[in-house]
Amino acid sequence: MDFFKALGSGIKFDRKKFQRDIQLFEKPTGGPVSLNAGANCEPGAELDFFAEAKPVAKANPAEETNDGGDAAKAEEEEADALEPFHGPSEIQAFRDRHRIAYYGEPSVEPVRSFAMLFERFTFKAAVRRNFDRLKFTKPTPIQLQALPLALAQQDFVACAPTGSGKTLAYVLPMLHILSEPQRVGYRACIVTPTRELATQVYELLKVLSQGTKFRINHLVKARPTQEGKETDQVKKYDILISTPLRLMYEIEHDLIDLSQVQYLVLDEADQLLELGYLQQVDTILAACTHSGLRKQLFSATIPPEIEDLAQSIMRDPVRLFIGFRNAATEDVEQRLVFVGQEAGKMVEIRNMVQRGFAPPVLIFVQSIDRAKELFHELVYDGLNVDVIHSQRTKAQRDNVIANFRAGRIWVLIATELMSRGIDFKGVNLVINYDFPQTVQSYIHRVGRTGRAGRKGIAVTYFTREDAPYLRSVVNVIRDSGGEVPEWMLELKPATEEKSKLLKIRPPPRQPIITKPSAVKWKMAQLK
Ligand SMILES: Nc1ncnc2c1ncn2[C@@H]1O[C@H](COP(=O)(O)OP(=O)(O)OP(=O)(O)O)[C@@H](O)[C@H]1O
Fold first, then answer.
1. Per-residue pLDDT tens for 88-127?
2. What is the ipTM of this complex?
3. Which of 499, 502, 478, 481 is nearest to 489 (CA)?
4. Which SS3 state, helix, strand or coil, does residue 108 take?
5. From the alpha carbon of 169, which atom of ligand 1 is closest?
6. What CDD domains does UniProt report for this protein, alphabetically (predicted)?
7. Is 300 a pocket residue for ligand 1 (Cβ < 6 Å)?
């Protein structure tokens, strides 16, 4: 109990909601405990919940990893660098230094800085002001190249690590290209796999478009059929943000007109081009009939088969890759923990709590049932925990996210729903309680920490049954600069057939039940 009191030092609670917590944590006896998982938790220091991002130590990973000469060169690339490039070889050297791989024609020059971008492209004063308020000093590597590429109105596929600012790379050019609001209907459309991600993109667009008259429709709510008809009312919108299922419904019920869309972005494109979403995305593509339509695809993971598919729906796309293909961000320390059997996972979690941990923590499990089970275990342990999955109402999901962002929830249990795109800047630790079913899932889950230049830790539990799938994750850890024991590198990768099976169906696992109270709850569920 002392540990929790200590851990609570400096944390503000919603007093009504956390009455019990307040009783437990009031008048802490000492400073926070030194915790092995906490980048923010030095002995004696106050917990730093969702503080402003720390100085971006490595906005451009190349700056730290290259040799002295390159580092000195990178130093020269000040935030306001305007020096033009002198020919293709200098551009190539610049791209190499920032680990930008650029395939295709035309070769659009990158920018050295935001100052150079705004010198080359004259943005509306309001958008410039709004951008300045974000206080981003240097473009991330994907932004160095994708911003001018998008502004040159090219089709492209962009693959860059999680948390490296891909959203800005399409949202900012969109506002420049659309230029002025026009009452002709949607001219830009952004599709994301989840409602939560759509909301996040909408929030950034709202910030950047303040003071302009652009109208943005965040289409995630169901609406009565008549209300949605393509009336003058709907024509006032310039930009649409939606999820594929919602949008397909609108198209199939003739509620929406996408014929004026000239700028289509698929965020988390590899997921959108997978079987589960393909039909919906096909319907959306077919509805975007404008001859000048430009398509841009973004993700932190673009497997080769998806790259081929992407190319088939685009016009000579440029392909942009930052760093290793399909690697995890280098800002996350990745650990693998062998837990023997299922029961070992709860032991490990409880040990972690005993040892101390620095919230906020995000825990991933493979199914809704397991999310509920784990929630009941941890709630009975007295942890400040909540759970998010698709069976919760939209309002509940929004509340959970807001509470987690505000530090009112310390531990959030999530299903795959939250694995992609969601930007929780302050997450210190991600735990893969259940081993991810694909290497892409691993990369995205791990990428919920270590964002925008911050550091993070990701711990993945594995049982004997998970061992055959370990190798692909081991490769990701190695490629992102992590250390892995030699024996793991000698493991055989799972066969293609086995990996495909795992992707479709999670493996059976023992329920997460260790307490009589949880058994009672589970029995009631099964009735
Ligand atoms: N140039 C920049 N400097 C500092 N922070 C930035 C910069 N660009 C974006 N960010 C911040 O980085 C964070 C991550 O950005 P974003 O969510 O766009 O990442 P992403 O690459 O789309 O990640 P994911 O693949 O997980 O969706 C955000 O909080 C954003 O505000």
1. 999 999 999 999 999 999 999 999 999 999 999 999 999 9
2. 0.99
3. 478
4. coil
5. 18
6. DEADc_DDX52 (cd17957), SF2_C_DEAD (cd18787)
7. yes
